[in-house]
Amino acid sequence: MKKLTKLLEGYQSVVLGTHGNNGYPFSSYAPFYYDGEQVYIFISNIATHAKNIQTTPRASAFFIEDESKSENIFARKRISLQCDVTSVSKDENSFNTIMTNFKNKFDSDMVTMLMGMKDFNLYALKPIYGEATFGFGEAYNIGGVKMNELVARTGGSGHK
Hints:
Helices cover 21% and strands 40% of the residues. It starts with a helix and ends in an 8-residue tail after the last strand. The chain has helices at 4-7, 48-55, 93-105, 108-115; strands spanning 13-19, 25-34, 39-44, 58-64, 78-88, 120-133, 139-143, 149-152. It contains four helices and eight strands, in the order αβββαββααβββ.
């Protein structure tokens, strides 16, 4: 069974879809860290996607193969996760562990600098449902106990 951890190894950023207070969807991106269960983003409160998440704590997380690495523009590998979002307080024990992992994944000096900025906050995106497509006819739902496994499709869209 393929796990999301392995599939997301090559990605450094996630495309975010959030719900704007004007009723329209908003697309953006953020660097991320994935711990095998949740996608973590460390973003500024000034950013529109942060304001949207604070108002409506749901987001889509979209990962897509780089166009230059794709053999067919119509069949780019992609993973889409629909997520509930929670804030991870700087006072929580898990905050430092997660941020250490961010430092290990990215330039630690940049992450350390951002951690010193009061407007940056850590958010956890917990997948509720999702799907992965790796080419024509190779589509999966995201499932499993921790919502981190590819599951063969049986005919439905995979979401509740």
